[in-house]
Design brief:
By secondary structure, the chain is of the alpha+beta class. The chain is built from 1 helix and 9 strands. The chain has one domain.
Length: 188
């Protein structure tokens, strides 16, 4: 039996066990460092996941817009008449069975947009946005590259679009199309 000195109040002194003691400064610093390391790791995983999700969303968006633009261009070019103007970023076609009616495609490197315009339309249709590069190529009936408008029978188009992920331009997609035949144009 352990004897305690008698306190003036007649009470026993409090029992001091290790479990009732507070954390030391070193223990607190180690716990804070481990907690910061865990939070940093969770933050890194979150940021990597956010970039991946944003990049996948951009790829899906670019693919959908590219397919839509390509489908519209292919359908309208196949139905167009003679090619009247050609450069690597500009096309103009006549509309069959219509006088002074044109279908025009133009890529503007300053705005990075591919637009389509038809005579009589009051609004210009924007087919692609954020398009970094676009090139039209012209082919004759034997699929040989040409610049002669009268012997042209088909064309191809290729472009590169890009998006930014969390402020950094990193997502790109190259879209290339095979030869589009101008069906309503007679071969000379």
């Amino acid at each position: 039996m352990k004897l305690y000195p008698i306190c003036p109040s007649g009470l026993k002194p409090p029992v001091r066990s290790r479990a009732l003691k507070a954390m030391t400064l070193i223990e607190m610093m180690v716990a804070s460092a481990v907690g910061c390391a865990v939070l940093l790791a969770v933050n890194m995983v979150f940021m990597t996941s956010a970039r991946s999700v944003a990049a996948m969303g951009n790829y899906v968006n670019m693919d959908a817009k590219s397919r839509n633009a390509l489908d519209q261009m292919t359908m309208r070019i196949r139905q167009a008449g003679n090619l009247t103007e050609f450069s690597t970023n500009h096309l103009a076609f006549t509309q069959p069975a219509q006088t002074n009616s044109f279908l025009v495609y133009n890529w503007d490197p300053a705005t990075r947009c591919l637009t389509e315009w038809k005579t009589g339309d009051t609004v210009t249709n924007t087919l692609l946005t954020e398009c970094d590069a676009l090139t039209f190529s012209l082919f004759d009936s034997s699929f040989t590259s040409t610049t002669n408008l009268t012997s042209s029978k088909g064309l191809s188009v290729s472009w590169t679009c890009s998006r930014t992920v969390l402020g950094k331009k990193s997502t790109t997609e190259d879209m290339q199309q095979a030869l589009i035949i101008i069906r309503n144009k007679s071969v000379l």
